[in-house]
Write a structure and sequence with these properties.
alpha+beta, 2 domains, four-stranded antiparallel beta sheet, elongated
């Protein structure tokens, strides 16, 4: 209890330094929060595209059902395919009618005979789509393969770049936060040199003197992380209607409250560690 009381007194004695430390930690963990939200969102988008038929193979009119079945089995044997759906000529006609039900002229012009049968293939990993596409193109019964390679490649490259940029930004801001905590705690130690000297004269141990400063650093980190989480969560909830409309049906929202609580807990632990580490480095240097 004496540690907590001393820590509280240290915080109250220098409010401006306290505010500066909390602001620095808040800015750091705002970046952390937005990076986590972006990474989680991009991962769900990739998972969404992975779960959808991403490669469509259209068969020649002379393709036999036995050959089509053999091709399906060949794809399943690769272990990369999560789902294979066969769309017959009649199924293709039904889809066409549904898509053009408001245009009777188009419905009269198309029959099942002129529509090709097809396979719609989903893979476990988005990286496997290229290999599956090449396998389909090599089949003699396949007339055309539709594979949005550029879209998939762009999506994966952006996700990878986002991860690298976010990690670099978090690392830099974490180092800045530690430096600021070291500086602020160092200033406070300098202001309390006489008090610390008296405490040591009356028998206080080194850790008895150090712990209040370390707890103070952890407090700055925890408050900053909580403030950043609140701000980022409010911003995310406020932007969710716009993002839902922009993503057009990709199921990212609503955000799970459990996910938000996990993010909060992770950030609190990380912030308390960074604040405590900065304070510990300060007491090692100045005491």
């Amino acid at each position: 209890m004496s540690f907590i009381k001393t820590t509280t007194q240290n915080i109250r004695r220098s409010p401006y330094q306290t505010i500066a430390a909390i602001v620095i930690m808040t800015l750091t963990f705002l970046v952390v929060s937005f990076f986590i939200f972006l990474l989680a969102g991009s991962s769900r988008i990739v998972s969404y595209f992975e779960s959808k038929p991403q490669v469509t193979a259209f068969f020649k009119n002379e393709a036999k059902q036995e050959d089509i079945n053999d091709l399906q089995n060949k794809l399943k044997e690769t272990g990369k395919v999560s789902n294979v759906k066969f769309v017959s000529k009649q199924d293709a006609l039904a889809i066409y009618k549904e898509q053009n039900k408001n245009d009777p002229l188009l419905l009269d012009l198309v029959t099942a005979d002129i529509l090709p049968a097809s396979l719609e293939i989903s893979t476990y990993k988005i990286e496997d789509l290229s290999a599956i596409s090449e396998t389909l193109k090599s089949s003699p019964i396949v007339s055309e393969v539709i594979f949005q390679k550029d879209v998939v490649s762009t999506l994966t490259s952006w996700t990878s770049a986002l991860r690298k940029i976010g990690m670099a930004a978090i690392l830099i801001l974490s180092l800045v936060s530690i430096f600021m905590i070291v500086t602020i705690i160092g200033i406070k130690i300098s202001h309390r040199k006489e008090d610390i000297h008296i405490m040591r004269l009356i028998g206080a141990t080194s850790w008895y003197v150090r712990w209040p400063f370390i707890l103070e650093g952890m407090f700055y980190g925890a408050v900053g992380a909580f403030s950043a989480w609140v701000l980022s969560t409010v911003a995310l909830v406020g932007a969710s209607p716009f993002l839902s409309d922009f993503l057009k049906g990709i199921p990212i929202f609503p955000i799970s409250p459990i996910f938000l609580l996990i993010v909060l807990l992770t950030e609190l632990i990380m912030a308390a560690f960074l604040g405590g580490l900065g304070a510990y480095l300060a007491v090692l240097r100045y005491l």
